[in-house]
Amino acid sequence: MTTSAIITSCTPLSSIQMENLKKSLEKIHKTNLSLENKIDKKLLGGFTVRVADWFFDASLLTQLANLKQEIVSK
Amino acid sequence: MEKLGVQPIQLLAQIFNFLILMVILKKYLYKPILKALEDRKKKIEDGLRFSEKAKQELEEAEKKKEEIVNHAKLEAAKIMAEAKKAGKKKELEIVEAAEKQAAEVIKKGKKDLEENKKQMEKQLEKETVDIATALVEKLLRQALSEADQNKILEKKLKDFARIAK
């Protein structure tokens, strides 16, 4: 059974990057995944991954939002 | 005596008549008159005594009246003094309560002011950070080239791979 994983990034991932990411994600989820790369310039940089309910955010936009939150909450 | 025209027998008769008159007068006139006089005297004395008693009672009543008036005056003065004292105490209590209330109002005002100041500072800080992050985001969008984007993406993928191991 194959589960789909959606990768969102500002620029498209290379095939090597996709392959490496697939391996990492399959290691985490212990299942076969089919990756789909979506482009979203709003992310500013980096990427996000969604596998079913699981979500990982490594975007610059979120990093900037976290930094902002950190400054405000001090 | 005869030479003087005084008849001894006539004189004796007159003396005798006089004595008889005296006895009769004493018995039927003097005694009632004396008794009436005595009664009258007694009545007058009783009247005087009554009058004296009445006078004495009047004096006592006057004295008593004066005592009551004095006592009432003293009581009134005492009540006035107590009322004044109570009024003064109440006045002090009111002043004290007003001062306390004013102090509380000032304290609350200071606290509110401090809280408002803090809130405003926090709001200002948030707005500053909002503006700053918005600026940073805008600058990054303009400054990051596709090559930079690729480098960032590569780094993030490597970081993720490390985490996944």
Largest sheet entry of chain B? none
**Strand-residue proportion of chain A:** 35-45%
Structural class of chain A: alpha+beta
Mean pLDDT of chain A: 93
Shape of chain A: globular
The outline of chain B comes out as rod-shaped
Major beta-sheet overview of chain A: 4 strands, mixed
Features:
heterodimer; A: 74 residues; 4-stranded mixed sheet; B: 165 residues; mainly alpha
How does this model look, in words?
The complex is a heterodimer of chains A (74) and B (165). Chain A has helices at 15-29, 60-73; strands at residues 2-9, 32-39, 46-51, 54-59. With 74 residues, chain A is of the alpha+beta class. Chain B is built from two helices and no strands. Chain B has helices spanning 8-143, 146-164. Chain A binds chain B through residues 9-11, 13, 17, 20-21, 24-25, 27-28, 41, 44-47, 56, 58, 60-61, 64-65, 67-68, 71-72, and chain B through 125-126, 129-130, 133, 136-137, 140-141, 144, 146, 148-150, 152-154, 156-157, 159-161, 164-165.
In short:
The complex is a heterodimer of chains A (74) and B (165). With 74 residues, chain A is an alpha+beta fold.
Outline the secondary-structure elements.
The complex is a heterodimer of chains A (about 70) and B (about 160).
Chain A (H helix, E strand, L loop, with lengths): L1 E8 L5 H15 L2 E8 L6 E6 L2 E6 H14 L1
Parallel strand pairs in A: 1-2
Antiparallel strand pairs in A: 1-3, 3-4
Chain B lengths: L7 H136 L2 H19 L1
